[in-house]
Design a protein that fits this description.
The chain is an alpha+beta fold. It has three helices and four strands; from the N terminus they run ββααββα. Helix content is about 40%, strand content about 30%. Strand 3 and strand 4 form a beta hairpin. The model has no long low-confidence stretch (mean pLDDT about 90).
């Protein structure tokens, strides 16, 4: 899912979102594991945007989380 945002003179920017099942597929985990990651404060997993009880995660937030996890484990 893509959404456009106007930000001043820069024009439209595209923000990509993944659904909960898409995030689970990205990390090769089940939905319950995704739920646990969201509840575990130690992981600092990105918070989703909720629309009509569906969760949408910003791809940029997920990428930043991945980088942070890689940095911490290195």
């Amino acid at each position: 899912m893509k959404q456009e945002h106007a930000s001043g003179s820069q024009g439209a920017q595209r923000t990509e979102y993944l659904t909960g099942p898409q995030v689970a597929e990205r990390y090769k985990i089940c939905g319950m594991t995704l739920h646990r990651w969201q509840k575990d404060a130690r992981l600092s997993f990105p918070k989703p945007m909720v629309v009509n009880r569906r969760k949408f995660f910003k791809v940029d937030d997920l990428t930043a989380w991945e980088r942070e996890r890689a940095r911490v484990s290195a």
